[in-house]
Amino acid sequence: LYIAGILVVPVLAAQAQQPRPATDRPPANVRTVLVIHGGAGVLTPDELKAAGLKAEDFEQALARALWAGYQQLQRGKSSVDAVEAAIRNMEDCELFNAGRGAVFNGDGQVELDASIMDGNMQGQGEGKRDPRRRAGAVAGVRHIKNPISAARAVMEMESSRHVLLIGEGAERYALSEPVASKYGIERVSNLYFWTDRRVKQIREAHRREEARRAKSTAASGAEADEVADNTAPALHDPDARFGTVGAVAVDANKHIAAGTSTGGMTNKMAGRVGDSPIIGAGTYADDRACGVSCTGTGEIFIRHAVAYDIVAHMLYAGKTVHDAVRETTLALPDEEEGIGSLIALDAQGRHAFGITPKTPGMFRGYITSDGQMYVGMYTGEEKRVQLQP
Ligand code: ASP
Question: Is the overall model pTM greater than 0.85, yes or no?
Fold first, then answer.
């Protein structure tokens, strides 16, 4: 019986070469206190091999992030602390597309986006009218080692003056004192984020783009239209998005927080901002419903206000987190390579994963109130993990 966590997954084709999913599940009476993702779109065993990686590398990376967040909760800290700790841990791990290891934009630079939201209504329960709802985000930052902490600093800015800061202004604020010391925000060179794997990925993206351009220049008239139709835009390229990270936690006071951090999509235009730092699109939290973090083609998540849509299903239609995630996920456009996935967690400790059709999985994991960790990569897969020393 599988109640604590619910997997909302349309059946996928083309999984023949993927390992048979393991089906470890926690007992029904335990609550999830933290759920995380490491991005939509997983690597097949062949791709893992080609990249010199192993599935266990990702499993352990997810386990380390879960443990980092869990320790905060064990110490009686808030869900905001747990989300920040889990995401910082993944930002520091170069396997993910956030912080070190983030993808390059078309100009060969790393530009990072992050957001965080506190679902706590401060006990007043005024809903949408509550002026104390707190959220913070940064976008297009190039020199901040841990963008999630900068997002938190914006959220906790005195009198909640702003929600979203971008580029240079965001960096100036986050690196100013006493903000930088209080939130542990460090300035780094853009080179800090670069990794061999992402250099290869951007070179490959440029090579494909060149080939596409050459093909359409060679074609003419109706033929040119056909070429344009047949060449997937870079944003829909399966290689374009791997490893955005997100977390949703619920603490001892039943307060929920959610956060997301990313380098965006490989080869994105300089200045492009996706859903991750957009409150209501990539991230949302409301104690009365749930917390949500999304990953995938950001433009679609923005247009469909995905994170808030799940909360709205719960608030206005009385849906459970499971049904809300399913409704929202299945109502999204059905595109060739899939458009992405999301995680959600309600105040009772019920989590749900939503993976849109044709998306070949999501790096994900959760930890229960008694400290048991479960991770999965491919659709339907779930296994218990322990931290390796
Ligand atoms: N949603 C992110 C963006 O569009 C990318 C991702 O999740 O992989 O920037």
Answer: yes
